[in-house]
Amino acid sequence: MPDEQLLDCLVIGGGVAGLMSAVYLKRYRRNVLVVDAGKSRLRLIPRTRNVIGFPDGIPGTELWDRIREHAARYGAEVAHGCIDRLERAGDGTFDAWSGEQHWRARYVILATGASDVAPEIGGLDAALQGGQLRYCPVCDGFETQGQRVAVLGRAGHGLRESLFVAGFGNEVTWLAMQTQDEVAPEDLARLRECGVRIAEQYPRHIHCTPGQGVEVELQGGTRLAFDVIYPALGLTHVSELALALGAQAQADGQLKVDAHQQTTVPGLYAAGDVSVDLNQISVAAAHAAIAATAIHNSLL
Ligand SMILES: Cc1cc2nc3c(=O)[nH]c(=O)nc-3n(C[C@H](O)[C@H](O)[C@H](O)COP(=O)(O)OP(=O)(O)OC[C@H]3O[C@@H](n4cnc5c(N)ncnc54)[C@H](O)[C@@H]3O)c2cc1C
User: Fold this and answer.
1) Which of 72, 84, 232, 235 is most buried by its number of CB atoms within 10 A?
2) Which Gene3D superfamilies does the UniProt record give (predicted)?
3) pLDDT higher than 90, residue 65
4) Other Cβ atoms within 10 Å of 167 Cβ, number
């Protein structure tokens, strides 16, 4: 793409939100380019079962292929690269760089996603694919029915996640990492009422073995066995490019947006995990539809 071409919209990130934005904008016959670093969280999903239209589920990588194919069908171009600098010019347009490559655009949709804080667990990658380690009970708590489940998380966050996970007819233990004293006694009592056990000592060692489950050794030497572990150590929203432009965000980087997904920087929109705490494929797709349509309307 020639350096001097002014795009209607540059989409940064080519996961769910970015590609859905491109489908909408191309179908509105807009001049759009997606630049993607190729690390969508979709590639970490062994099989998603809550995407409408796929009742038997679909592996995340296959879904990503299908979404890319869908965007390509309408002529959306995806450039591989990582945007490392984004600036807003005096006339309100944007300049973006990926190394030496440069693009200019009237509008930008930031669809850069989020990343989970990974625990120190032996065999993590295989466990993620095998379903022994899961990050998202909203997505797959349903699949843990009847299983022994550990939740690894500190204080209030770990407690809330344990309560959420305990709603699926399973057997839950909160690995509290010695933060159980930081929560209110009535919350602890509620957790116990829901049948959640609390492992108070710090886990010294956690290991997942495909097909065999999760082994936890506590500092006192006690060994616990689980079928599944949910790390609940937090999430980082990938919003640095917007923050550098002065966009407002929460402490964890989640961008503030209006009803049309516009950030507090005029012309800069955000869609998907970067701007929401309900990290879901359906939410990312909906954000994209809203942002792309708002941009199209602004260009009329
Ligand atoms: C293990 C796991 C299981 C999950 N299961 C489900 C499920 O069953 N159902 C469900 O609804 N959701 C599930 N999710 C969540 C789902 O994957 C996300 O909500 C969804 O992918 C969000 O889409 P997104 O477009 O916001 O971000 P992503 O799909 O993560 O895409 C972001 C893209 O932006 C790119 N990027 C980042 N920075 C830059 C940059 N500076 N320049 C260029 N590109 C950049 C990244 O490389 C990436 O390709 C799961 C997530 C995980 C981790």
Assistant:
1) 232
2) FAD/NAD(P)-binding domain (3.50.50.60)
3) yes
4) 12
CA angle 64, 86, 63 (to 5 degrees): 5
- Compute how many other C-beta atoms are within 10 angstroms of the C-beta atom of residue 164: 16
Task: Output the CA 38–ligand 1 centroid distance in Å.
Answer: 10
Q: What's the gap in Å between 14 CA and the centre of ligand 1?
A: 9
What's the rounded mean pLDDT across residues 103-131?
93
Ligand 1 center to 274 CA (angstroms): 9
Residue 212 has pLDDT above 90, yes or no: no
Q: Name the residue at shortest CA distance from atom 47 of ligand 1.
A: 39
- What is the average per-residue pLDDT within 144-149? 97
Looking at residue 1, what is its pLDDT?
44
Domains of the chain: residue spans and CATH: 6-115+234-299 (3.50.50.60), 118-231 (3.50.50.60)
